[in-house]
Amino acid sequence: QVQLVESGGDLVHPGGSLSLSCAASGFTFSSYAMHWYRQAPAKARELVASIGTTGGGRFYADSVKGRFTIFRDNAKNTVYLQMNSLKPEDTAVYYCKAVYTDEYWGQGTQVTVSA
Q1: CB 72 within 8 A of CB 55
Q2: Computed from CA positions of residues 79, 53, 92, 6, in that sequence, does the dihedral angle turn out positive or negative?
Q3: Which DSSP string corresponds to 14-35?
Q4: Helices and strands in the chain, H and E counts
Q5: pLDDT tens, residue by residue, 11-29
């Protein structure tokens, strides 16, 4: 069956770094654009970063531009989100999403940025 499994969420101090992973299975990963979303408490889910099927076409939300990097490894069926210079406002549950003929969501991983 289709699975997207995020990992790497943690508690980190402001200014710290985290690397999130999203491992895919059950579909042709290399055919799907991949996206990272986040949802903070009492806020709507928002798009953080996107990447095309071959690694191009990257998009970043203004709030993370210059701090976050999205990349993918199609051989490993995995998309990553490298997050640097983390701020308290980055605290959220982070989700990956696969989009092509269908859309699939992962279950999310918690990132907490706090002193």
Answers
A1: yes
A2: negative
A3: TT--EEEEEEEESS-GGGSEEE
A4: 0, 11
A5: 999 999 999 999 999 999 9
